[in-house]
Amino acid sequence: MNQRINFVLVLFILFSAVLIYRLFYLQIQQGEFYLALAKGQRTSFQEIKGDRGKIFFDDKNGALYPVAINKDFTYVFICPKEIVDKEATAEFLAEKLSLEKKNLIELENKDSLFEIVVDTVEEKTAEEIKGQKIKGVYLGIRKARFYPYETMASKILGFVDVDSDGNYGIEGYYNDVLKGLEGFSKEERGMGGKIIFFDVESFKPSDAGVDLITTIDYNIQYQAEKILEKYKTKTESESGLIIVLDPQNGEIKAMANTPNFNPNSYFKEEMKIFQNDSVQKIFEPGSIFKPFTMAAGLDLGKVKPDTKYVDNGILKFKGGIIYNYSNRTYGEQTMANVLEKSINTGAVFVQQTIGEKNFIDYFKKYGFEESTNIDLVGEVFSKNKYLETGRDINLATAAFGQGVELTPIQMAQGFSALINGGTLWKPHIVKKVIDQSGKEKVLEPEIKKSEVIKKETSEKLVEMLVSVVENGFGKKARVSGHYIGGKTGTAQVAWSALGFDKAGYSEKTVQSFIGFFPAYNPQFLILVKLDNPKTRTAEYSAIPAFHELAEYIINYYQIAPEY
Fold first, then answer.
1. What is the pTM assigned to this prediction?
2. Domain annotation covers residue 4
3. Is the distance from CB of 342 to CB of 474 less than 8 angstroms?
4. Is the CB of residue 243 less than 8 Å from the CB of residue 252?
5. Which of 3-17, 88-102, 476-490 has the highest mean predicted lDDT (pLDDT)?
6. What is the CATH number of the domain that holds 138?
7. pLDDT tens-place string over residues 128-150
8. Are 252 and 216 in contact (CB under 8 A)?
9. Residue 38 confidence class, pLDDT cut points 50, 70, 90
10. Does residue 176 fall inside a structural domain?
11. Do 416 and 491 have their domain in common?
12. Nearest to 54 by CA among 183, 212, 203, 191
């Protein structure tokens, strides 16, 4: 008996020694390691994203229209390991969410604790799912970008992706200030995941992004898109755009494009739809470029509005022959007639009169070999280096807008300088920034060049462009009681622009009209561009669209009649 007792006692002593050593090892020798491990398991750092800043349009009275905001969306998720009856659960969710039952069963069979079923669900459907109280099926709330006007101005705005980053348009250009600064919180959780400690000292709050007030007038943008879509359909154009800006300060009042997309569901679209042709696509402008050639001649004193030349309807060069539209011959004409009747040979006459160097110098002064630096993502431009090859045919065709490459925003910026007295303003979309404290910062308009042409030159050119509308091919742009100035353009599209490795021009055309009013104190400039309409010239496509929008703006701003 004593031996048995001693044996048990020895075992007990050995066991106690092992236990004491183990406790010594864990608590003393490795204590700090396991303490840190325990803290790591119960301590978490939660990332806190600041609310993204909102984007607003306004109107003539200063009323604000929220066009990009943040909204709470309800989503449905499941915990596969908690679902009891997978067949019945899949059948119920398939019916309520219009999903494939087999796909839901695959989701339920995953070895995970969290799977999103749909990222957005209607409130009524959410209530029905919640009311069933199905184990393993849950509703969550997520905050995401929302565009209440859907397709309207989509190519101005861009979109925000699943990583909360802005893409294209304003969202992309101003992403860093819109998204704000991220913060974090330190929490410790006990049994069941409940928070038992919140470290106030370690808490770093997030900062919301700034709000942006744009130059876009909601009502003009709405009308521009409506009119553009109407004439795209009416003329069977492939695409089109309208730019409206204030030539006195570069503010963009509208920038309509067709086709558009819905930024709320950007992921359903192909990437090419996101391109804003106003700033991301070059084109050969055709006859709307002639005023730039004429302005250079006037500014240098080489021609006057009444300077005469004789048009024989044809000009021969090494490398090509130049004709007027429809092979017309006009005989003796003035420089004013050249713009009124859009005479190609007349534009070449001015270019040859001022010479190669002067022509290229003015081309650069208008800003046509550099970006406008508009505050939108992805602006492109052409260096137009082939103008400096010295080939007479290249310079001659450039005089009437063929063989030169510009973006619509470059054209609008340059044309503004022609009619506002010679100042080249930087075009811009955002005019005011408001931080989270409500402090406002006004973004002042920026002058790029103060005297592209002389004020006297601008005044002469305005008179000539008013005559284009009163007496020339621009008659359909007239608005009763108001002086309108402008120029038509019908340009052929080069094969190379269509992706063909082929010289020369296709049968496709770009038809455009650029006009302004009130003519002698211009406050609005409108560029209408339609790609390959089924009409013969811009007189029957772009000009009627211009007229309709100009008439709306005149009535909207209650611009007093001039005669």
1. 0.85
2. no
3. no
4. yes
5. 476-490
6. 3.90.1310.10
7. 888 888 888 889 888 889 999 99
8. yes
9. low
10. yes
11. yes
12. 212
Residue 376 belongs to what domain range?
215-267+282-435+448-556
Q: Output the six-digit token pair for 481.
A: 């009681």
327 dihedral zone (left: phi>0; alpha: psi -120 to 50; beta): left
Tell whether omega for the bond before 259 is within 30 degrees of 0, i.e. cis: yes
Tally of domains in the chain: 2
Label residue 287 left, alpha or beta by phi (over 0 means left) and psi (-120 to 50 means alpha).
alpha
219 and 292, same domain (yes or no): yes
What gap in Å lies between CA 356 and CA 307, rounded to an integer?
20
Residues 339 and 417 both lie in one domain:
yes
Number of neighbours of residue 406 by Cβ within 10 angstroms? 25
CA distances for 140 relative to 95, 117, 343, angstroms: 20, 11, 67
Return the SS3 of 527.
strand
Residue type, 320: G
Q: Which amino acid is at 479?
A: V
Tens digit of pLDDT for each residue in 472-482?
Answer: 999 999 999 99
Which residues partner with 514 through β-bridges?
Answer: 487, 527
Helix, strand or coil, per DSSP, at residue 560:
coil
Question: Is residue 37 in some structural domain?
Answer: no
Cβ pair 517, 465 in contact under 8 A: no
Domain CATH number, residue 541: 3.40.710.10
